[in-house]
Amino acid sequence: MTEPGMTEPGRTVIVGASLAGLRAAEALRHGGHRGPITLVGDEPYLPYDRPPLSKRVLTGEERPDQITLPSRPGLDLSWRLGAAAVGLDLTAREVALATGDRIAFDTLLIATGTRARPWPKPEEAALKGVHAIRHRDDAERLRRALAASPRRVLIIGAGFIGCESASACRAIGLPVTVIDPNPTPLASVLGTRIGSVVAGMLGRAGVDYRPSTRVEALEADAEGRVRAARFVGGGAIEADIVIVALGAVRNTEWLTGSGIAADPGGVSCDGFCRVLDRAGQPVDGVVAAGDVARFPHPLIENGPVAFEHWGHAVAQAAHAARTLLGRHDRPYAELPAFWSTQFDVNIKSVGLTNGADSVAVTQGSLAERRFVAVYGRAGRTVAAISFDSTRWLPAYAARIEARDAFPPILGATDQGRVAPADPGFPSRPARA
């Protein structure tokens, strides 16, 4: 089925030369697109894999030049790397670059992703020794700093990047303090009941974890290098490396004034990945995919969502490419999934915990840190998370997609008493 307004692409421009952009280009070529394809990226590197940046790159197990993404041969792509997009003219069908050049397109795919949320005080964020992790150069600078054996690493934020970075630092023997404004790590994603397991992992690894704590200011020495962090309510800690892990910001500023519905929450799309204008109508020949795309998902009841998951970027990129080719007969409905490895524990998830009002451990035990926890909302199963126990996840994924009752699987041979409990999500997740 060909969607209205979509025609066989001529000149295609993909803004965002990362995972989603590359996989979209592959899907276009695989789908028979013969016209020119140009990928625009603000970094000077070919697309690379980002998950290792907060793990194996920091420990020195992998070099940044070893994480380039594999791609199919013979794609015949043009590259504009190290040239950020700064504007979009839909009338002229052109993308403006920071170099002053303009690139014409017939069809456009937006995959500009996210960037690390900076420390909110710019003068402190610019201090020597203050780092964030998003790009390859970020990770390389931080790796060099960690290799110099700092006296203490301070990590502000206990989300996935913060916890993974803490794991990497402990793996190379560095003293680490993690400051978390919430009661447990990953509280906004897992809730405090399961987040307490992660807190235990931090403690057993020797991390100085400080929950319900906020940093008021970063202090510098006479040479402009960070030397300490001062806490809200009093107290301070010395550190010569600070990793700011406060989440991500979607890269939408370059679309200001273009007529596209875009804001800090993402680029608005319909279920076919077609970008919407300010009136809520699809823009002819323009789609979006990956972290930056905000779209309606059939399993999410409270409005459009944007996912920051590796597998989602791959799947949505392929979907957006097929939409450009006019070959989609159903909206995008891929089940969200993510994974994280920290402190030698593999954490995997399917579905979304957003708004969950119940959680039940259905296999294993929290004490052993080997279990499956299933989340419910209003009596329906919405997510499942495993710690070193992935065998049951495909079964729970099927139950989530079928909108089964919560909890969906009872009476399994490896299952003890299932006792649903309050997940313990903060009413308003705190910021450091």
TrEMBL record:
Needed co-factor(s): FAD
PANTHER family: APOPTOSIS-INDUCING FACTOR 1, RIESKE DOMAIN-CONTAINING PROTEIN-RELATED
Keywords: FAD, Flavoprotein, Oxidoreductase
Molecular function GO labels: oxidoreductase activity, acting on NAD(P)H
A GO term from the CC aspect: cytoplasm
Protein name: FAD-dependent pyridine nucleotide-disulphide oxidoreductase
Coiled-coil features, chain-numbered ranges: none
Boundaries of every Reductase C-terminal domain copy: 338-403
Region (Disordered): 413-432
Organism classification: Bacteria, Pseudomonadati, Pseudomonadota, Alphaproteobacteria, Hyphomicrobiales
Domain FAD/NAD(P)-binding: 11-317
Family matches, as Pfam families: Pyr_redox_2 (PF07992), Reductase_C (PF14759)
